[in-house]
Design brief:
Elements (H helix, E strand, L loop, with lengths): L3 E6 L3 H12 L4 E4 L6 H6 L1 H20 L13 H25 L3 E3 L3 E5 L2 E4 L4 E9 L3 E3 L25 E5 L3 H12 L3 E5 L11 H13 L3 E3 L3 E7 L5 E6 L4 E3 L1 E4 L3 E3 L6 H4 L22 E3 L10 H16 L13 E3 L5 E5 L2 H7 L3 E8 L2 H6 L5 E8 L5 E7 L3 H13 L4 H5 L17
Helix pairs in contact: 1-8, 3-4, 3-5
């Protein structure tokens, strides 16, 4: 008899969900985690980053307060206070996730585990453990380029632990992580330069929405260097970084942050030795039921490099546990996944972009609302929001919704139901507006 019914390697979002649900079905479950329970999202990703986003929003809110009658005589910011409070919340959440696993009688092993066979693993301590099924949920890590002086740069892992707020920061990348930290540090008062090797930003989002973010960012004096690459980095005796560039003049900064993608954590797991096939970028190949090339070994989350989003990893972990331990076969639907960039202002989208729709279904109808939020009007802030609905011209079905503006991600979560349910534009038109709100624009476009 095996030691466990299920052995999970990695206690991130997907691993924790699979462990908890499988244990709730009565399975004997163990999970090995060599760092901290909670994974990237909770420990050094979306949760602490969103807390920094909240903190940075006060910069504009305090400026706007005067037009609403509030006297704010002095505006100062203490990075150390926010940093330490965020890290304290991360520690609390780690404890909560750990307690959840313990409550469900999941055995937690705080050490590294590697595969030794289709039904066995070896812990760092040398102990061998057997299991009927093994689930790989080791996530991914930031990519750091192999350039001279890379030891002077940081990734998104280290950004939450900075000793002091940089006066000047260079951020390399064109994805959501780069744009989110660009907005955060700008609001904290840093001079931000965003370097991208192409002129394409946020490639999976609607281009019109992305263009609006770039326009707003430029007006805020965030500096963009397109078609530029970083060649090498050095630090002088005063602690300043010199960044040698191709495609633009060399840059000086206090910090250099690379946000240029994430690499699945598959090295030294024993995958090759047991016959688990991996693909490009080291990702673990799986079928629709999260099964690898070895029938008893499965994988979920970022390590599969399908869709690197926390809710997707959670849904995959749930589907795995339901299918193999709950006798409720199910698979994840990867269509119409809502996503957001917590930039300043935030943007969000679900379904097909205008470009994707035209290339996929042909004739489309585009409805937009370009407006200045009421709060911005009274505050004297000229920043405009943009909402966009993409409709199949023949069926009138809403195939995409995209927006940029205050609270866009919060609004999109409900709006995503329209795309998932394949509602028609007339269904939105027939819905009464909730006035005065920004969200009412979604049902007023004609």
């Amino acid at each position: 008899m095996s030691d466990f019914d299920l052995f999970v390697i990695g206690a991130g979002s997907g691993g924790v969900r699979a462990s908890r649900v499988a244990a709730a079905y009565g399975a004997r479950v163990a999970v090995a985690e060599e760092y901290k329970v909670g994974g990237t999202c909770v420990i050094r990703g979306c949760v602490p980053k969103k807390l920094l986003v909240y903190g940075s929003h006060f910069a504009e809110d305090l400026d706007d307060a005067a037009m609403f009658g509030w006297d704010v005589p002095a505006k100062t910011f203490d990075w150390a206070v926010l940093r330490d409070n965020v890290l304290g919340e991360v520690s609390r959440l780690e404890g909560a996730y750990t307690e959840t696993l313990k409550t469900h009688k999941v055995t937690i092993l705080q050490e590294r585990a590697t595969l030794t066979g289709p039904n066995s693993v070896r812990l760092a301590s040398g102990k061998e453990i057997t299991a009927d099924k093994i689930l790989i949920a080791t996530g991914a890590r930031p990519v750091m380029p192999a350039i001279e002086g890379i030891e002077h740069a940081i990734s998104s892992n280290e950004v939450f632990h900075l000793e002091r707020l940089p006066k000047r920061i260079v951020i390399a990348g064109g994805g959501y992580i780069a744009n989110e930290f660009a907005g955060i540090f700008h609001q904290f008062g840093s001079h931000v330069t965003l370097v991208n090797r192409t002129d394409v930003m946020l490639r999976h989002y609607d281009q019109q929405i992305v263009d609006r973010l770039i326009q707003i960012s430029l007006r805020k004096n965030i500096d963009f260097k397109f078609h530029a690459t970083i060649d090498r980095v050095s630090r002088d005796v005063n602690g300043r970084l010199h960044i040698a560039m191709t495609g633009c003049d060399d840059l000086e900064a206090d910090e250099l942050l690379f946000a240029t993608g994430r690499h699945p954590n598959t090295e030294d797991l024993g995958l090759e030795a047991v016959g688990v096939e991996t693909g490009d970028n080291g990702k673990v190949g799986v079928d629709e039921d999260n099964r690898t090339s070895v029938p008893s070994i499965f994988a979920v989350g970022d390590v599969t490099d399908r869709v690197q989003l926390t809710p997707v990893a959670i849904r995959e972990g749930q589907a795995f546990a339901d299918t193999f331990f709950g006798n409720k076969p199910c698979r994840v639907d990867y269509g119409s996944i809502p996503s957001a960039v917590f930039s300043h202002p935030p943007l969000a989208g679900v379904g097909m972009t205008e470009g994707q729709a035209r290339n996929t279904i042909g004739p489309v109808k585009i409805f937009t609302s370009d407006f200045r939020p009421m709060k911005n009007v009274l505050a004297g802030r000229n920043e405009r929001s943009l909402y966009k609905i993409v409709v199949d011209a023949e069926s009138e079905v809403v195939v995409g919704i995209h927006m940029i503006g205050p609270d866009a991600p919060e609004i999109l979560q409900a709006a995503a139901i329209a795309v998932k349910a394949k509602l028609k534009k007339s269904d939105l038109d027939d819905t009464l507006a909730l006035h005065p709100t920004m969200a009412e624009e979604l049902v007023l476009m004609r």
